[in-house]
Fold this sequence. Notes:
single chain, alpha+beta, 2,3-Dihydroxybiphenyl 1,2-Dioxygenase, domain 1, 8-stranded mixed β-sheet
Amino acid sequence: MLQQTMGIHHITAFVTDAQDNVDFYAGVLGLRLVKKTINFDAPEVYHLYFGNEVGSPGTAITFFPWAGARRGRIGGGQVGFTTFVVPQGALAFWEERLQQFNIPFTRTERFSEEYLQFKDKDGLQLEIVEREEGPRSQWAFGGVTPDKAIKGFGGAVLYSNAPDKTMNVLQQVMGLEKIGQENGFVRFKAIGDLGNVIDINAAPVGSGIGGAGTVHHIAWRAKDDEDHQLWRNRLLQNGFQPTPVVDRQYFNAIYFREEGGILFEIATDPPGFALDEPVDALGEKLMLPEWYEPHRAAIEQGLPPIQIRVLGEDKP
């Protein structure tokens, strides 16, 4: 039986200002900051995770806010649009909310679904679609209540330098099913109910440049450590060179670059973000892996202060 991922685990992007990042994803989009930690490879930079009430796999968008970072260019070899999904009937609420916060957006349609497309403060391309499938978020913040809240990822639009090769990886390696093609896009679906719909350009897209406002990598779900090892073996058998397993504290990860230029990660569902904090206090304290704890004072001193705050547009 072909090994199949449930879909997207998380998506990680570069931005510039940490407080702007928090204000947009928590203040405007109503996501919960579920983990405030550091980039384990560059501890002078935050790693911020936003998702549903516990940051479940399929809901977590994560950021490296790097002050003064160069602006990237979205293009081939990257995620083009990160897709959020909201409950059926909630799209009109989000249209009004984007207008309320003076965020320009466009309406578009793909595969008989309506999308609102917009950008964050760094130019990262986002879109919202409504669907019935997938559990609702239980998180409420500002003007966003659970009946309207982002449930997690609807999926993503991939921009590939070699779409035929990327599509082959999606089908033959990751186990997604091709379900449609129209207007220059091919649609694939994973077996999960969040982060499960992937659209990809049918023709090559000019290469992008990494930097603020671009996605660094897209991560796919592995059920557990045993499944994770099977994925690594599968990648090796298919001619890829995955990294060794990397401990990311809240999941284990392997990375590989598929032939269309996109950096893929495969991440384990467990242990999750409640590993080192109680659920009701997620995201409140800077959490460090044990090997950085001796340097906490210096790390905290070097990071800009951030706060989760209700924005003025949501205040009476």
